Every structure is written in structure tokens, then in C-alpha cells.
Amino acid sequence: MIHQRLKARLATESPPSEHLDEDALCAFVEGRLEEAESSPVISHLIACASCRQTTAQLIRLGSQFDPENELTALEESPGRVRLLLEGLASRLAPSFEEDAVFAYQEPVAEPEQGTEVITESKPGTVDDGD
Amino acid sequence: MIDNPARAVTRPSQAELLDRLTSCAAELDAIYADCAKAHSDFGLSAADFRDAVIGAINKYLIGFKEGSVVPSAHEISRFIGELQDRDLFLALACARGNEHAWWEFDRQYRSFIERWARHLVRGGTDADEVIDSVYVELFGTRVSGGVRQSKFRTYTGRGTLRGWLRAVILHTVVDLYRGRKPEIPLEDWSGNDEAREPHGRFAEMRGTEETMLASIMRDRYRSATIAALDQSLAALDDHETLLLLYYHVEGLKLREIARIVEQPRSPIRRWFQRQSKRRETAPSSRVHESTVMRWLEKVYQKVSDRFHAELADTHGLNAAEIEICRSIATEDPAQDVRLDRVAAGNENFNEEEAGKHQVEGAS
User: Which of A125, B138, B181, B261 is the most buried (most CB within 10 A)?
Assistant: First the structure.
């Protein structure tokens, strides 16, 4: 019944006309506010279902992401702007690999019978940590 | 409070604030110099950085505090020291449209934004729309007073830029879905539905074995139960109420609540610690589920005590009648809240088990 009465209490209160901005929501969720600063935020969160739901979602989603994996993935995946510019650059000028097509390549000698041929393994796919 | 970092508060005296900020000038200069050294191509002046810090102080140290008193030099110094200065420096430069800053932002945060957007929405097209909307908002398309209103202007450096971006992305997703279907609840657009199932959902109807007489009796005492419970909940401190709301209404799990109070400076954590007779012995230690459970148990105990007193004092009920009311309040089988349990002295709470988790001294 506590759940029911909590909801009933919320229903009788008129929601605040203003909401917490992302800056305040983030500072609260990250626990960076001093107690005096957080007092109006907590009061607001009690009265405002929208902001409370947002903080609850941020807490919930934050627990689903591992910050270390995020950082790893960050280092492994370049930004879209960089990729775009690299793509443009490759169209304007032939890439090193394209040059290599015309480079002299020494014919590969036929392996002798009984000799093991070592081929380079394909790198595995990168887990982005999600 | 939205989009208004330096919201219009009755500022006690900006001159006084600036005067106290002067005593922290060396600290502020050192932070700026450090950031500018790392990113000299961002083109952000010391004055721009200082103005942003003043905006943050106005918002949090004055606007968010009751009484709007000018913060002391010590408070300002601490506040400046806690700022996410590199993040703020980057955000300010991006807000001013610096190309190098945008490159750096894209390098650091693009994949993060993409992963979050794709995690939050199901369809790939929707995720792309969210990502585009976030970038448009961050860049800013509206111009006011000759200044482009970049979303970055609302970032103060109080929290991390990453955390701020999470909130921005989340709001963008909500706006996207609510724009399509006004009544869509926030809970419906993300995966992991199980995670947000409210703990206290009224899923089951009460048992059919109740007799007619018991039903009549219950009806008789139901109104008293509701009134007493409402009074008991209204008497709680805001911190306690928010804890209950997160747990019972928003359906956060104990470990998720533990995350929000993990920071040693978390206001909720500090508030509960202050209520404790036991002093905190390991300020930086983690908060585990058992700690949050103990806090909840204390809140339930407080509700239970007040509930009992209300029924006895205000409604004039005797012990037997109070017991009926207590059973009415706890009859929902899906409820985690057990007033009868806390009334019996927390017998069901396994302190021994909780002790295994090396809980910090917050109980």
C-alpha cells in the first residue's frame, strides 16, 4: 500500500512548471552536488515525475554501461568526421594500397612439398563493449 | 531551470561575488592555463572561461541554495577545484564554434553518442535521427542577440561532459518518441523491460478465502489506514521520500540505487549517514545493496512508528484495531514493504548476510 499511497500523493500534487536541465540532472546523478545545492533538486525530483524518471533512467542505463569498455571502444573507433575526411582524401588521392598494385612484386616461390605455409590470421572483430 | 544555467535568481551582490572570486584568481588562472596549454587551438580566452565559472557559481552556489547568500571564498575555491575543467573548456570552445574543439569533441564523444543512441532506441533509423538531433542541438540553430544558442552553453562543468551528454541524449529520445505519440510513457521506448518493472506493482488480487465479515471489517478500517499512511509518508524527509520513490515507483533495483549514492559526497548518502549513530569509518568505500536495504528498512520503521501513532492518537484505535489496519496496509502480496516485518524488529533482515559485503558504516 505504500506504493499505492506514494503514487496517490504524487497524483494530487501539480507538477512543477519548470524542469531540471541536463547539467543539474547529471550533477545530481553523479553525486557531485553539495547537500545545500541538492536540497532543491531532491524536492523537485519528488514533485516532478518527468525529472525523476529521467534520473532513474540515467541511473539504470549507467549501470548497464561499463565505463572501461566505453573508453576502449572510444579508442578503437574513430569519429565520423575523421572517417568522412579520410574517405574524401582517399577519393582525391590514390591510397598507398592502390599504389602498391603497380609496385613490383617478387613472385612467390612455390612451397616445397612438406613445408608448412603460414598465413596471417584475420584479426578478430572488436567488441565495442556494449 | 531548463536551458538556463545562470538562471535569474535574486543575486545578493555580484560585486561581492566577484570580490571573493578574486581571492581564487590564482587557482582559476592555473586551471585555465592548464586547459589552454592542452588545447591552445581552441581559442578560448581566460575571460570567457572565467565568465563560465561565474555562471556555474551563480547557478549552484547561489541559485540552488536557500537564501541566495554569497558563497565564501573557501566555498568558491572548493567549487572551482571540483569543476570538470577540461570538459568545460571543450564545451565552451564548441559552443563558440571552434573547429578544433569540434574535431576533438567528435573524436572523444562521437562513438559514445552513437552507442548510447543505439542502446536507447530500437530502430537504426531512429538512432540516426537521435544522433543527428543531438548534434544539431549541440551546435545550435537558434540565434539570440547575435549569439548562436548552442546546447553546450548550458553545461557548467559541475558534472562530467559524458554524464551531461547522457542526459541530453535521453531527453532527445524522449522528445522524439513523445513527438510521435504524445502519451507514450518513458518506460516504453527502451529495452530491458524487466529492469524497470516496479517492485510494488499490484499484480495480484487478494485472496479469495477472505470471509464476508473480514471484508466488512477491512472496509471499515481502510480509510483510517490510508489516512494514517498518508500522514506517515508526508512526515518523511525529502531524502527518504526520494529513496522510496526510486525503489517503489520508478522500480530501481537496490544495486542501481547504490550507484547513485556511491559517491562519498552523494547528498542522499550523507544524509542517511548523518542519521546513523555509527560514524563512517571508510568514507570512500562502496555502497552495496545491503546498505540501501538498511536505509529502506529504517524508512519503513519510521513509517511504521508514525503509522501506529497516527492510528492510536488521531483515530483512537486500540491495539487490535491497529493490527487490522496494519494487515490492510501490508496485504498486497507483491509488496516489498512489510510494515509488519519492521514492526517485529527487522527479524527478517539478515544482518549477518549484510555484514559479508563489507558495508560502509552508513546504517
Answer: B261
Report residue B141's pLDDT band, with 50, 70 and 90 as the boundaries: confident
Q: Which of A33, A46, A61 sits opposite B242 (nearest CB)?
A: A46
Name the residue with cell 540532472: A25
Over range B124-138, report the average pLDDT: 89
- The single residue listed with the C-alpha cell 560514524 is B279
Give the residue on A whose Cα is nearest the Cα of B78. A34
> Does the beta-carbon distance from B250 to A53 stay under 8 Å?
yes
pLDDT at B347: 38
Helix/strand/coil (H/E/C) assignment for every residue in B160-193: CHHHHHHHHHHHHHHHHHHHHCCCCCHHHCCCCH
Is A26 within 8 Å of chain B by CB?
A: yes
Which of B57, B60, B152, B233 has the highest number of chain A CBs within 10 A, making it the mutation to test binding with A? B60
* Nearest CA among A24, A28, A30, A37 for reference residue B4: A24
* Residue A125 confidence class, pLDDT cut points 50, 70, 90: very low
Confidence check: pLDDT of A49 > 70: yes
Alpha-carbon distance B97 to B261, whole Å? 36
Q: Enter the ipTM.
A: 0.71
pLDDT digits (tens, 9 = 90+) for B181-216: 654 555 454 444 444 344 433 334 444 555 666 667
Q: For an interface test with A, give the residue of B164, B175, B206, B262 to mutate (most A CBs within 10 A).
A: B164
